[in-house]
Write a structure and sequence with these properties.
The complex is a heterodimer of chains A (about 375) and B (about 375).
Chain A: E1 2-6, H1 11-22, E2 26-33, H2 51-64, E3 68-72, H3 74-90, H4 97-116, E4 121-123, E5 128-133, E6 136-141, H5 158-161, E7 164-165, H6 174-183, H7 205-213, E8 218-221, E9 227-231, E10 258-263, E11 268-272, E12 279-284, E13 286-289, E14 306-311, E15 319-326, E16 329-338, E17 346-351, E18 354-360, E19 363-366
Parallel strand pairs in A: 1-2, 1-4, 2-3, 4-7, 8-11
Antiparallel strand pairs in A: 5-6, 6-18, 8-9, 10-11, 12-16, 12-19, 13-18, 14-15, 14-17, 15-16, 17-18
Helix pairs in contact in A: 1-2, 1-6, 3-4
Chain B: E1 2-3, H1 14-21, H2 34-53, E2 61-64, H3 67-81, E3 86-89, H4 94-105, E4 110-113, H5 123-128, E5 135-139, H6 151-161, E6 165-168, E7 190-196, E8 207-211, H7 237-252, H8 254-273, E9 278-280, E10 291-296, H9 301-310, E11 313-314, E12 321-322, E13 325-326, H10 330-334, E14 341-346, H11 353-373
Parallel strand pairs in B: 1-11, 3-4, 3-5, 5-6, 6-7
Antiparallel strand pairs in B: 2-8, 7-8, 9-10, 10-14, 12-13
Helix pairs in contact in B: 1-7, 2-7, 3-4, 8-11, 9-11
Classes of the chains: A alpha+beta (about 375), B alpha/beta (about 375).
Chain lengths: ~375, ~375
């Protein structure tokens, strides 16, 4: 097959490309330049897309003896990922930019270009498995659940999955990937993992948002409207967040308070006790199916939903739930109340190791009604 | 792989490779012992060979590390001596643009001169910008577009305004006759002319700045005072020797070679413009013989080059890269064609008619593929 290997300059995509070459494919390496104002040098483990990262990727391609190119997707990335990220926070939601990048850039803009140029697959260093079945490709968790990235790939559709290749799928651990990189003589073998959000290299998401969305100072209020503090900008607060509230007024019962809701219209951040975070239901209208839509959802109702597991954040544990469709909305009821469900995140449905699909969460139903 | 990117760099000439293999052990040409004298003799012989090929005097030949250093020495060196503005056309090479911008950042005024939709410098605007200027500069042959500039005319207008003029002849060398005398190399004509050996089959790392005897210029690198005190540092005897062989050969074969290349260039342009949405950019009466430059609608620049690379052709977008990312061409933008994707096919002495036939045959499908793959 003709395979286009997306190479970030990190160790995972390097080993993924090497395995694609070893499997006998005709491989071409491509580094995506996503940041128009990319720095020259990496700082610590943060950030990506620096000139140094592109060079790291190039040196791996040199060792593999494959052609290598840098493709500029910075404009698309700005529009589809960064602007979306800002818009979501401005609307009081908590976006996942990695998932958006997979949905719109890596497995859309890049994949479309690759197919147009005659490639069969795009290979990446994601930890996830594509399983080909009679009814088409399915997406499954990686063998190493600790590194599993199926959550951020949950947005991929059948068509996209049909053109994906994840050579690290069956690797039992990240340590093994590093050892393999070492064995292959890649200079990136001991390069630190990248963390956080690639376009916020200093890790200061709040500062990044304030700079671009402007200051939006407002009140921090209890559910009954009592003002308990103030904040410099509502952007960047996430449902379930406890730290960084700097509340002057202690709660009546002396227990910690958590962010329950962000209201961009009034610039209010609503806080309350941990119990108030618990939700029993969530729903979203931006739905996608990884592979064919599971037949169990046909005719599923609120009384008789499909038994699934749902994962609501990249590093959350999946929890038992039932799912059903109401018109074009995917509704998920969790079996036990679940905390820290933020709108803007994806709710990814699993059946065992298999990803069924996902929706972007746009509403939740609390377990207990707010006190009046 | 068919190499059609000679404007980027050229393969070493066999004569240069042979001279490299035959190179004797060399002393420092500044040393007074006989070994040093032998090195100095080889160096000065090279300088004379270069001067001879360029219709210059050996004293005027200052050897540098390449075209970029030559440009920096000319612009910064003259700016050190003369106050006033820099007159710089849009669409110059990055060595010129970035040097001008660095001087601007240090407080120097830069007067940008517009270029036409075919990359021809607006001569009237150029003349009008000269009043009280420290220096003016112009690219003889555009490294991207291949437009041949009337540098003699621009130099004449600088001369009458009493403004020193630098001519960047890097892409002109070997393709249009470069004569220091006909450009009036002195403070009463072009003051400096920059060249690079690797564009004509010489080694990378050797450049020339022809400097008029009475040029108002100060060094930008300080040290042992070599080369009229303008360019300190131990002189590269072997580099100069190899560069002189390449330059002399390129100039000697210019007439025959430029008509051969121009014929092939026209075939590439014809094949290009036969594809809908593709235009030739350089003016028909002022195209360098070795550069066929096309501008394409509805396609990503890097995708065209990629598609041709997959088919075995090494071509270019012609503009600078950062981290391997193609910058949008500032020249196309200045020409009012910033919405189009540039494609530069550049020919040289190793290019055969067969290469050009193959490219012409592959071009329509490659463009179609690239268009299909572009967002």
């Amino acid at each position: 097959m003709q395979v286009l290997a997306a190479m970030s300059g990190g160790v995972d995509s390097a080993v993924a490309a090497a395995r694609a070459v070893e499997a006998g494919h005709d491989v071409v390496g491509v580094h995506l330049a996503l940041n128009r104002n990319a720095g020259t040098l990496r700082t610590g483990s943060r950030g990506c897309c620096t000139v140094e990262d592109a060079m790291d990727a190039r040196r791996v391609a040199d060792r593999l003896g494959i052609p290598f190119y840098v493709w500029d997707f910075s404009e698309r990335f700005q529009e589809e990922v960064v602007d979306d990220f800002l818009g979501e926070y401005a609307a009081g939601r908590t976006p996942n930019p990695c998932l958006r990048c997979n949905e719109r850039i890596k497995f859309a803009a890049l994949l479309d270009r690759a197919i147009g140029l005659g490639f069969d697959r795009v290979a990446t260093g994601h930890y996830a498995r594509v399983v080909d079945t009679a009814s088409g490709p399915e997406l499954h968790r990686a063998a190493d659940w600790a590194k599993d990235q199926s959550y951020v790939l949950g947005v991929l559709t059948t068509d996209q999955l049909a053109h994906c290749m994840f050579p690290l799928a069956d690797t039992p651990s990240k340590a093994e990937v590093r050892a393999e990189a070492e064995r292959r003589g890649f200079t990136v073998a001991s390069k630190p993992d990248s963390h956080d959000i690639c376009f916020i290299p200093d890790g200061d998401t709040r500062g990044f948002l304030a700079e671009r969305l402007g200051d939006a100072p407002g009140a921090i209020v209890e559910r009954d409207g009592t003002v308990v503090g103030e904040h410099a900008g509502a952007h960047g607060f996430t449902v379930g967040q406890r730290r960084g509230l700097h509340l002057g007024v202690p709660s009546p019962d002396g227990r910690p308070r958590f962010v329950l809701e962000v209201k961009p219209a009034t610039r209010e951040v609503v806080v309350g006790p941990r119990e108030a975070l618990a939700v029993v239901e969530l729903g979203g209208r931006r739905v996608s199916w990884a592979g064919e839509r599971h037949p169990g959802l046909d005719g599923a109702t609120s009384d008789a939903g499909l038994a699934v597991e749902v994962q609501i954040r990249a590093h959350a544990d999946p929890v038992p739930a039932t799912a059903f469709l109401v018109d074009d909305e995917l509704v998920v009821r969790v079996d036990a109340p679940l905390s820290g469900v933020a709108t803007g995140q994806s709710a990814v449905l699993y059946l065992g190791t298999r990803v069924l699909g996902q929706c972007t969460i746009d509403r939740t139903v609390a377990a207990e009604p707010a006190p009046v | 792989m068919r190499y059609l990117d000679h404007a980027a760099t050229t393969p070493l000439r066999p004569s240069v490779l042979a001279a490299m293999a035959d190179a004797p052990a060399l002393a420092n040409p500044a040393s007074t012992h006989r070994a040093g004298q032998r090195a100095a003799a080889l160096l000065e012989e090279a300088r004379e060979r270069i001067a001879d090929a360029l219709d210059a005097h050996p004293t005027e030949v200052v050897l540098t590390s390449g075209g970029t250093e030559s440009t920096n020495l000319a612009l910064q060196g003259i700016a050190r001596v003369r106050p006033g503005a820099l007159v710089v056309p849009d669409g110059e090479h990055h060595a010129t643009l970035d040097t001008a911008e660095a001087l601007a950042a240090a407080g120097r005024e830069v007067r940008w001169v517009p270029i036409s939709s075919t990359a021809v410098v607006d001569a009237d605007a150029f003349a009008a910008a000269l009043d009280g200027a420290a220096l003016a500069t112009a690219l003889w042959v555009s490294n991207e577009i291949g437009t041949v500039q009337d540098v003699a005319g621009l130099a004449a207008s600088a001369r009458s305004a009493g403004v020193p003029m630098h001519v960047d002849a890097v892409q002109a060398l070997g393709h249009v006759p470069v004569s220091a005398r006909s450009l009036g190399l002195s403070s009463s004509g072009a003051t400096t002319i920059g060249l690079s050996a690797h564009k004509v089959g010489g080694p990378v790392g050797v450049g020339v700045l022809l400097v008029a005897r009475d040029a108002p210029i100060a060094p930008i690198v300080h040290g042992g005072g070599q080369q009229r005190g303008l360019r300190s540092g131990t002189q590269d005897v072997l580099g100069a020797h190899l560069a002189s062989i390449a330059i002399a050969e390129a100039v000697a074969e210019l007439e025959a070679e430029s008509s051969r290349l121009a014929g092939m260039r026209d075939r590439v342009l014809a094949a290009g413009v036969a594809v809908p949405g593709v235009v030739a950019t350089a003016p028909a009466d002022a195209r360098a013989p070795h550069i066929a430059h096309l501008a394409l609608a509805d396609v990503d620049a890097e995708t065209v080059v990629f598609a041709l690379d997959r088919l075995g052709f090494a071509v270019s977008n012609g503009s600078a890269c950062t981290a391997g990312v193609q910058e949008p061409s500032h020249v196309l933008r200045a020409m009012g064609l910033g919405h189009l994707a540039p494609l530069r096919v550049s020919l040289g002495r190793s290019t055969t008619s067969d290469d050009v036939d193959a490219l012409c045959a592959a071009l329509p499908a490659a463009i179609a593929t690239a268009r299909a793959a572009s967002a």
